[in-house]
Write a structure and sequence with these properties.
alpha/beta, Rossmann fold, Dihydrodipicolinate Reductase, domain 2, 2 domains, nine-stranded mixed sheet, 12 helices, 22% strand, Gfo/Idh/MocA-like_OxRdtase_N
């Protein structure tokens, strides 16, 4: 048994110096004071691994040369000293193997997405998660934003009526040139199928758009018709994707994901339209939710503690009064906070994407690729695998 009031002891695989996402995870995990970083295997480069550990104030004895040594050494420590939660922020091909072994060794796991390299691998991981007493969470950070939960609540409550149309788009511009050829390591591994998986852009950011659409619409996508493209010569994996889709409740939709939209930063956006009105949320302005009504003036709902017109799920994820911007780190911190509550209280995880979202995401990637390569107009995406 763990002391309920004590901080959760956390270890990292990946996230060495120069890795944006690892630093973001550490900052987000530290926001609510629920975690204590106790160990890590931060990089395959010994110097980077050592320097990262020193910068984070860790003793050399708990900066491990690789994740295998870390799992074995931490498992051998007394329960009140060993790592409790393993955070995985490596390239995609390591997500499932590390998560599987960590769960089997008795640790909780919080992993960057995607959950695995392919559908077969994620289904095998799902079986491990099912058999393990440990918790498993997936860092679909955009599902931590309060106004995303507000939008979902308004769809569920019938504020915009019967859902008819969903338009979700995620354009980026950072791969508009040959970034990998110019030495960008993040771009390099993302274009190697053995490290990234079969999908390029569709796996990296298309899955974010997909999970956001299913979450806010509160219904699964059942069929899709997709087109993938490669615009930069020499690239192996897609850098551009567009598709039509049909949802279980009858709504039709459009999903666009691209990393060659020159000049764009991170403007993930979703619009939903029912027979009574519509909603719009944009990640670059996350505190606002636009509500369009069929017979009323447009209104903009703003986030902030205590706003009486917002739902409880949204209010639980707000940290500041109205007018004080909250962003990406706070959204990720919401996932970490909910995960910590489940670990600390020994309860089921609520509010954090889990293995089921990982399975859906991988099924989505493979359905998109199959449709693009095949002759069928529509490809069915199984609701439950």
């Amino acid at each position: 048994m763990r002391a309920a009031a004590s901080k959760i002891r956390m270890g990292f695989v990946g996230g060495g110096e120069g890795a944006f996402i690892g630093q973001a995870h550490r900052q987000a995990a530290g926001l609510d004071g629920c975690y204590e970083l106790v160990c890590g295997a931060f990089s395959r480069d010994p110097e980077n691994n050592r320097d990262t550990g020193i910068a984070l104030g860790l003793p050399a004895s708990r900066c491990y040369i690789d994740w295998q040594h870390m799992l074995a050494a931490e498992q051998a420590l007394p329960f009140d000293q060993r790592m409790e939660l393993l955070v995985i922020v490596t390239p995609n091909h390591l997500h499932a193997p590390i998560a599987s072994q960590a769960l089997q060794a008795g640790f909780h796991v919080f992993s960057e997405k995607p959950a695995a390299l392919n559908l077969a691998e994620v289904l095998a991981l799902e079986a491990v998660v099912s058999d393990s007493p440990g918790h498993y969470g997936l860092a679909h950070t955009y599902l931590g934003y309060p106004m995303v939960w507000q939008a979902r609540h308004m769809v569920r409550s019938g504020v915009i009526g019967t859902l008819r149309k969903v338009i979700v788009e995620y354009p980026q511009g950072w791969l508009s040139h040959d970034a990998a050829g110019q030495g960008n390591k993040q771009a390099g591994w993302r274009d190697q199928p053995e490290l990234s998986g079969l999908g390029g852009c569709i796996g990296d950011i298309g899955t974010h758009a997909f999970s956001l659409a299913e979450f806010v619409a509160d219904q699964p996508i059942e069929q899709l018709c997709a087109s993938l493209g490669i615009h930069v010569p020499g690239r192996q994996l897609d850098d551009d994707a567009a598709m039509l889709f049909k949802m279980a409740g009858g709504a039709s939709g459009v999903l666009i994901a691209s990393q060659v939209c020159a000049g764009e930063e991170n403007p993930l956006k979703i619009r939903l339209y029912g027979d009574k009105g519509g909603l719009e949320w944009r990640q670059e302005e996350p505190s606002s939710l636009i509500h369009r009504s069929l017979d009323q003036p447009l209104r903009i709902l703003r986030s902030g503690i205590g706003q009486p017109w917002l739902c409880e799920a949204a209010l639980q994820r707000m940290r500041l009064p109205a007018g004080h911007p909250e962003g990406y780190l706070e959204a990720m911190a919401n996932l970490y906070r909910d995960f910590a509550a489940a670990i600390g209280q020994g309860t089921e995880v609520v509010g954090v994407p889990g293995i089921e979202v990982g399975v859906r995401g991988m099924a989505f990637i493979e359905a998109v690729i199959a449709n693009h390569r095949g002759d069928a107009k529509w490809t069915t995406l199984a609701r439950h695998l």
